[in-house]
Specification:
Number of domains: 1
GO molecular function, one term: acyltransferase activity
CATH topology: Glycerol-3-phosphate (1)-acyltransferase
Protein name: Phospholipid/glycerol acyltransferase domain-containing protein
Distance between the termini: 57 Å
Strand order of the largest sheet: 1-9-6-2-5-3-4
Radius of gyration: 20 Å
GO cellular component, one term: membrane
InterPro entries: Plipid/glycerol_acylTrfase
Shape: globular
Strand content: 5-15%
Organism: Adineta ricciae
CATH architecture: 3-Layer(aba) Sandwich
C-alpha cells in the first residue's frame, strides 16, 4: 500500500475528530500511536505478541494487575516505572496490560530503538520526545515511561529494586505538567526474578557493575559517553540470553503523585515521583530480590487454585 493510502486508512481509524487533528501534526509513523486502543489491540502485530507473550505470562507467571480502579478511564495518564535488569518484562507486560484492562499503554522508548526496531511503533511505541508525548496525553491516552532508562537497568542486581534515575531525567515531569495529567507509579513485583541470565549474574558476582557505575559517576568528559554507549550496547545484547523462572508477577498501580504545578517546581515533582515509586516498590517487594520467595508465591497461587477447583467440584 502506498504512503497516501496508509495515511488515509489511519485517519479513518482515528474516530475522535479532536484526536485526529492532534495526530495530523505528526509523521505517519508517530500517527500510529494515536489509533484507538481497540484498533492497536486487534492489529496483526499485537495479536502476534499476544500469542508469544500473553498465555505464557498468564499461565507461567500468573500475571495480574492490581489497582486499575485508581485511574480515570476518560483522561490521559503518565505511568512511571523502574527499568528491569533484563528487558524480559517489557513486551509481555504491555500485552497483558491491554488484555487485563482494555487499554494500550503508549511506551516512550529510546529513539535508537525505534530506528533498529521500527515494528515497535505498531504497538503504539514512540520515541521519548516531549511534543508527541504531551499530545498523546492531552488526547486521553495512557503513556508509560521508564525515566531511569538503560542507566538504571545496568546498575546491578543488588540495586534491582532501588530507583536510580540520572539527575538529568526530568522530562517526564515537564510533559505531565504541560499535559495536566497525573503521574502514576507502576511496579511489577518479582520482575528481577522472572528471568535468569548467566552473563549478567557473572557480571554482578564479580562486582563489575558497581565498578562500571563508579566510573560513570566520575562523569569524565568523552569517556563517560563512550563507556555508556559501549556498556548499554553490550548489556542490551546480553539480555537476549534469558532463562524463564516461574516467578509470580503482579503489576501494582500506585496512587497518583500529589503535586501542584502552580506551587511545585519540576525538581520537586521529580523528587516526589521518585519517592512515591520507591515506596510502592518497598511495600510490594519487602523481601527485596529473592528467587525462592518469587517461586513460592507462584506455586502457592497454583495450590490455592487447585483447592478452589476441588471444592467447587465436590460442591456439585
Amino acid at each position: 500500500m502506498d504512503i497516501i493510502g496508509m495515511q488515509k486508512k489511519i485517519d479513518r481509524q482515528i474516530r475522535d475528530p479532536v484526536v485526529k487533528t492532534e495526530a495530523e501534526r505528526y509523521s505517519l509513523r508517530t500517527r500510529l500511536a494515536f489509533l484507538p486502543d481497540d484498533v492497536i489491540g486487534q492489529s496483526w502485530f499485537f495479536r502476534l505478541l499476544t500469542f508469544l507473550y500473553y498465555y505464557f505470562f498468564v499461565f507461567f507467571h500468573a500475571f495480574e494487575v492490581v489497582g486499575i480502579e485508581k485511574i480515570d478511564p476518560d483522561s490521559g495518564c503518565l505511568f512511571i516505572a523502574r527499568h528491569s535488569t533484563h528487558n524480559g518484562d517489557i513486551l509481555g507486560t504491555l500485552v497483558c496490560f491491554y488484555h487485563k484492562t482494555g487499554r494500550v499503554l503508549r511506551p516512550l522508548i529510546h529513539r535508537y530503538l525505534t530506528k533498529f526496531f521500527p515494528f515497535l511503533r505498531l504497538m503504539g511505541a514512540v520515541p521519548g520526545e516531549p511534543k508527541s508525548a504531551t499530545s498523546l496525553l492531552k488526547s486521553g491516552f495512557w503513556v508509560a515511561v521508564v525515566p531511569g532508562g538503560a542507566d538504571e537497568g545496568m546498575i546491578g542486581h543488588e540495586n534491582a529494586y532501588k530507583v536510580c534515575w540520572p539527575k538529568k531525567r526530568k522530562g517526564f515531569a515537564h510533559v505531565a505538567v504541560d499535559a495536566q495529567v497525573p503521574i502514576v507509579p507502576l511496579f511489577l513485583a518479582n520482575v528481577d526474578e522472572m528471568r535468569w541470565n548467566p552473563l549478567l549474574s557473572l557480571w554482578n558476582f564479580l562486582g563489575l557493575g558497581r565498578q562500571f557505575s563508579y566510573v560513570l559517576d566520575l562523569n569524565i568528559p568523552i569517556l563517560h559517553s563512550v563507556l555508556l554507549i559501549i556498556g548499554s550496547t553490550v548489556w542490551f545484547l546480553a539480555t537476549f540470553i534469558q532463562i524463564p523462572i516461574p516467578a509470580k508477577l503482579t503489576l501494582y498501580i500506585g496512587d497518583p503523585v500529589q503535586y501542584d504545578p502552580s506551587k511545585d517546581s519540576i525538581d520537586d515533582i521529580v523528587q516526589r515521583s521518585h519517592a512515591d515509586l520507591q515506596r510502592l516498590i518497598n511495600r510490594c517487594q519487602p523481601q527485596g530480590r529473592s528467587y525462592s520467595n518469587a517461586v513460592k508465591e507462584r506455586f502457592a497461587g497454583l495450590l490455592n487454585c487447585w483447592k478452589s477447583t476441588l471444592l467447587e467440584v465436590k460442591s456439585h
